[in-house]
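RECORD TYPE: inverse folding
INPUT: structure tokens
STRUCTURE:
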């Protein structure tokens, strides 16, 4: 096994098993300290952090490469740590770390639209605790990952289990999810959609301006939302500045529109503001070349 593969397996072992496993057993302040300190290790998550940095530097200004990588790793680690804690009986600790200036009730019976941003895995539990009956498309892990990255596969299985446990019948596997979500928009409950991933090959697409450049989006959901004229809310959970585990839930809206392109540009503006504000919190910079035309 090459040195690169060994480093990948060690990083995965710490990220997806050892650190979150300790977090379940230790006081929250201690688990946070571990997350912060390990994010400073240069070898730790080195390949993933480098891919994120290389993706970001073409689109946003980064003053300090080391600071960017450390913060990007911290966001990733906190998200995994939070998932473990919610699965193993410490959800209230995680929820107590999320501040919100606007009542979560704003999302009641509306579509809540986010992005691959910040340590945001707690959004489902926040909505569930508020009685808002969330629904979300999710992707079960592919079996092939087990042979390449077993620790990451183990975590992905746990993440899928968390989603199904939290949402029950409102957990929607990808593949025909659009038809299911269309039906759910006519029902009570909040529907969550994450829109900033590059579309799969062969799917209809739409363009909009992100960071002043053309970005490509899946056309299916904007079309459904415009057809339904359903009210929607943008959301983001952001890690707060400094050495902290505090996050802030931002809710913006409600809005409604019958025009898919108008909706998409509003979403693109929301995404752009966050990418400029704190680019290290966007978790899929490695896919930027597929997202931007």
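DESIGNED SEQUENCE:
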């Amino acid at each position: 096994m090459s040195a690169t593969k060994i480093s990948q397996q060690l990083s995965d072992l710490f990220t997806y098993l050892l650190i979150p496993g300790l977090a379940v057993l230790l006081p929250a302040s201690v688990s946070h300290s571990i997350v912060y300190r390990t994010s400073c290790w240069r070898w730790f998550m080195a390949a993933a952090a480098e891919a994120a940095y290389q993706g970001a530097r073409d689109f946003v200004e980064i003053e300090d490469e080391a600071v960017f990588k450390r913060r990007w790793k911290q966001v990733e680690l906190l998200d995994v740590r939070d998932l473990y804690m919610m699965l193993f009986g410490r959800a209230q600790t995680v929820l107590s770390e999320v501040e919100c200036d606007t009542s979560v009730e704003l999302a009641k019976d509306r579509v809540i639209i986010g992005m691959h941003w910040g340590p945001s895995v707690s959004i489902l539990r926040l909505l569930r605790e508020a009685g808002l009956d969330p629904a979300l498309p999710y992707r079960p892990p592919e079996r092939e990952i087990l042979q390449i990255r077993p620790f990451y596969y183990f975590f992905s299985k746990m993440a899928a289990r968390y989603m199904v446990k939290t949402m029950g019948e409102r957990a929607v596997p990808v593949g025909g999810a659009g038809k299911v979500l269309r039906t759910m928009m006519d029902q009570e409950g909040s529907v969550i959609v994450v829109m900033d991933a590059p579309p799969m090959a062969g799917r209809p697409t739409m363009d909009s301006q992100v960071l002043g450049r053309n970005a490509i989006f899946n056309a299916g959901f904007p079309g459904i939302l415009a057809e339904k004229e359903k009210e929607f809310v943008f959301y983001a959970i952001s890690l707060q500045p400094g050495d902290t585990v505090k996050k802030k839930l931002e809710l913006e809206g409600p809005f409604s529109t019958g025009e898919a392109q108008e909706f998409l540009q509003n979403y693109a503006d929301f995404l752009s503001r966050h990418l400029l504000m704190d680019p290290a919190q966007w978790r899929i910079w490695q896919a930027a070349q597929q997202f931007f035309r």
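NOTES: The first strand starts at residue 98 and ends at 100.
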